[in-house]
Structure to design on (649 residues):
């Protein structure tokens, strides 16, 4: 009993309340209301997924047909009946050389997903073998003070995801480290707030592309004579700068709008300025700060793809771009796989932030 | 020189066209060890008056003197129980009180501080809830935490702004007794703001009505000459109590009606402050 209560709490807390309904379906204690909930929270969403896939499938098929007919028509007008027949046969046979290039069907995307995973397994096996082979030499090289030999093969899809995550977290941390302290300082002083307001209002809507170019100008010069990974530095700084505004504004707002009662308490207790900030102002603005951080993280993830793409830094963005330029038969479906992965990770990140936000929010009657 | 003195105090909120004079020509003096209650309608400026005395607000004109010195800010010598509890919601009951005690007694060790916290939490019967957060408590429990927090700092004077307003009758009675207990035992000075005449009569040495604002002034004071410790049930049969109660309520009703009939007109109060209600009415 106790355990199920905590399960209920945890899942509700993370916004995954439907799991509870699912659980009670199996344990059998589902009343009428519960059954309606089950329909609403489990059956309907699943049905909508199938509907989505069905529509996608049909849409992809009709796009495929349009593209195929056009190809045959073209062969007919340019090269005559024989070529058109050959083209028709070629398309029907599923030959790679003459496939219409259009929106891939769900099945193709699923295939590509599996092939990407296989690809990852091959590459990681390759990597492991490489590491084994070079282990002795590398140990020697390190002992001699030389740089170890590193694997320089193509990164797999999973590697790209990890790189993107690394970049987004670096950018997020940068945003946090810049925006929270500045937000607190701005929030504390009305004068400061009105004097930097124009700056925030101007920089907030600036497009990620412009930030990237700005960061590029600066970082390019600053890393001229070091061999550090400037693409990574450029992209994570750009991500941080693009995404930090929500946190900055929310922190400043939270600090500026601390309940007058709490300030009065601080005054009556005669807290010093530092104590006042850390014991009253910060805790009371934590919920708003975390709301800001949550927005920041989702903005960071959203702009990351575009920035990676432009900065030529490894990650999901460049994966998408390379596949697009590649134009191989399964490129389109790989791009769609990337799209789902990007969306899924974005959703997960948001859930994590929501969970943290709920934990620090003192307005909740029950914390975990 | 009285312990606390307000001389010709005016308080105006806002500037220019938006200025409203909430308090007008307030004169009040409280002796050391006295228990004074101020009764008044909601919105008459009671909280404003309290904040002038505890140092959260400065008068627009006039002076507030505490032990002969002007009140320029808050002080640990004057403890405050706020009308709306003002507990910090991210701290537990114990932490809320600990924070206050730590500021009041910076030289005491952690252990001593925790002892004080436990003592006062026990005093308001909240030991089982010491690790709960304010959101998990009922209004009455929160108010008791606020009382414990103010008293644990051992202020010389305690200023209470409708401290028991939100409580049910039973809890209210208990807390009244607890406050009286501490006031009597440690001979503090107390100022109680209330909208409950019975509460004022039960607890205070003097009751002063605050006339409705804007431009609220203090009315004539009513001395309560009833022996302490007072007994609630006996009080109801006490002729003295009945007479005082009726007199105060009549006075409040009168100014209430006055206010309705002469909405915006400035009213001059008769310049008399009866020393005792007996004989005057
Ligand atoms: N900070 C403020 N600014 C402007 N007006 C205020 C402010 N605080 C209180 N008032 C006004 O002053 C009057 C008295 O308020 P208050 O002292 O809270 O009354 P009470 O405590 O008796 O209910 C009210 O009309 C209220 O609207
Ligand atoms: Mg009030």
């Amino acid at each position: 009993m106790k355990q199920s209560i905590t399960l209920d709490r945890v899942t509700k807390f993370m916004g995954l309340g439907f799991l509870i309904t699912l659980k009670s379906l199996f344990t059998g204690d589902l009343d009428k209301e519960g059954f309606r909930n089950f329909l609403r929270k489990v059956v309907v969403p699943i049905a909508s997924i199938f509907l989505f896939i069905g529509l996608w499938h049909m849409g992809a098929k009709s796009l495929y047909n349009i593209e195929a007919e056009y190809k045959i028509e073209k062969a007919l007008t340019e090269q005559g009946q024989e070529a058109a027949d050959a083209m028709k046969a070629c398309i029907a046979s599923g030959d790679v050389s003459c496939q219409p290039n259009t929106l891939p069907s769900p099945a193709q995307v699923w295939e590509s997903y599996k092939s990407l995973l296989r690809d990852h397994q091959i590459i990681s096996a390759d990597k492991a073998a490489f590491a084994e082979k070079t282990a002795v030499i590398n140990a020697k090289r390190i002992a001699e003070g030389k740089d170890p030999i590193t694997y320089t093969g193509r990164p797999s899809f999973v590697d790209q995801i990890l790189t993107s995550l690394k970049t987004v977290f670096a950018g997020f941390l940068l945003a946090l480290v810049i925006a929270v302290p500045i937000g607190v300082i701005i929030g504390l002083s009305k004068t400061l707030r009105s004097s930097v307001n124009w700056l925030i209002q101007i920089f907030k809507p600036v497009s990620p592309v412009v930030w990237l170019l700005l960061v590029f100008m600066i970082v390019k010069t600053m890393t001229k004579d070091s061999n550090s990974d400037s693409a990574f530095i450029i992209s994570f700084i750009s991500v941080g700068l693009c995404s930090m505004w929500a946190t900055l504004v929310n922190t400043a707002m939270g600090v500026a709008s601390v309940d007058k009662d709490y300030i009065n308490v601080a005054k009556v207790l005669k807290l010093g300025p530092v104590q006042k900030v850390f014991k009253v102002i910060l805790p009371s603005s934590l919920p708003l700060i975390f709301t800001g951080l949550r927005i920041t993280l989702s903005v960071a993830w959203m702009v990351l793809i575009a920035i990676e793409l432009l900065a030529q830094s490894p990650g999901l963005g460049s994966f998408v771009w390379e596949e697009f330029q590649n134009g191989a038969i399964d490129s389109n479906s790989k791009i769609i796989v990337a799209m789902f992965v990007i969306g899924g990770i974005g959703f997960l990140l948001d859930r994590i932030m929501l969970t943290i936000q709920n934990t620090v929010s003192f307005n909740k009657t029950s914390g975990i | 020189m009285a312990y606390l003195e307000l001389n010709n105090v005016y308080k105006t909120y806002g500037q220019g066209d938006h200025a409203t004079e909430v308090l007008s020509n307030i004169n009040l003096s409280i002796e050391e060890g006295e228990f004074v209650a101020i009764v008044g309608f909601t919105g008459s400026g009671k909280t404003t008056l309290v904040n002038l005395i505890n140092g959260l607000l400065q008068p627009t004109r006039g002076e507030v003197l505490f032990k002969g010195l002007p009140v320029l800010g808050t002080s640990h010598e004057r403890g405050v129980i706020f009308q709306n509890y003002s507990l910090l919601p991210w701290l537990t009951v114990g932490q809320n009180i600990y924070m206050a005690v730590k500021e009041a007694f910076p030289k005491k060790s952690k252990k001593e501080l925790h002892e004080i916290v436990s003592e006062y939490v026990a005093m308001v019967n909240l030991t089982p809830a010491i690790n709960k957060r304010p959101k998990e408590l009922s209004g009455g429990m929160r108010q008791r935490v606020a009382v414990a927090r103010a008293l644990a700092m051992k202020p010389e004077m305690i200023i209470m702004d409708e401290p028991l307003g939100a409580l049910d009758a039973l809890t209210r009675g208990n807390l009244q007794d607890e406050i009286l207990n501490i006031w009597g035992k440690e001979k503090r000075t107390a100022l109680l703001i209330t909208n409950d005449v019975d509460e004022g009569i039960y607890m205070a040495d003097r009751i002063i009505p605050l006339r409705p604002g804007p431009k609220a002034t203090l009315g004539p004071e009513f001395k309560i000459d009833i022996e302490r410790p007072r007994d609630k049930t006996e009080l109801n049969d006490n002729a003295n109590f009945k007479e005082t109660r009726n007199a105060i309520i009549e006075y409040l009703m009168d100014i209430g009606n006055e206010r309705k009939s002469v909405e915006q007109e400035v009213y001059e109060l008769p310049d008399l402050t009866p020393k005792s209600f007996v004989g005057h009415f």
Summary: DSSP finds eight helices and ten strands in chain B. The pocket of adenosine-5'-diphosphate (ligand 1) is lined by residues B 13-14, 22, 40, 42-48, 213 (CB under 6 Å). The interface with chain A takes residues 54-56, 73-76, 79-80, 82, 84, 86, 88-91, 99-100, 103-104, 133, 135-136, 153 of chain B (CB under 8 Å). Confidence is low (pLDDT under 50) at residues 277-281 of chain B.
